[in-house]
Amino acid sequence: MTAPSSDIAFTAAVKVIQTSRGARAQYARLEASGGFRTEITEDLIGFLSGVDTAYLATATAAGQPYAQHRGGPKGFIKLVDAHTLGFVDLAGNRQYVTTGNLAENDRAFLFLMDYAQRRRIKLWGRARVVVGDAALQARLMPPGGAGRPEQVILFSVEAWDINCPQHIPQKFDADDVAGAIGGLQERIAALQAENKALKQQIAAERTSP
Fold first, then answer.
1. What is the predicted pLDDT for the residue at 42?
2. Do the beta carbons of residue 77 and residue 119 sit within 8 Å?
3. Spelled out in words, what is the top-level CATH class assigned to the domain 37-163?
């Protein structure tokens, strides 16, 4: 019998704790339905189109974990094929911890947050670094992206899950807020101009013979 995809996170040790704390039945039902999603769906692609920040977790061969922020214009993480996501990795502080980890352990994890809609998505998979592929780099480089492209990271999705919004604070992107405020300011200016014109019209009517 094939293990459910959620076993990628729910190890035997995790299940023991779930049992001891009364949560096992809930996740047993999830496992009975197959576990986490494994296919890249249209919903996931739509979510990625609005993502401008992500956290990529890797580990050394010995298991020492490391998480690194990756960001860019919205939609910088792109669909490569039916099971693979990819993004251009820009030059940074040149520590190369993520790159070194992936050279000896390809297991990786992506953590994505949407604070405005209070959503979070977790993706488990395997990642690899691609250096020197100009065509792939050009394909994945987002329009308007800043920084110097150094390599590409390809992420093969093995399982993914959406968390509930519990405990996620609602926050809004500064550019989105600025756009909304700009629209309101334009509307206020239009109403003020309309109000001024009406007052002038009323005043003219009162003074006319």
1. 95
2. no
3. mainly beta
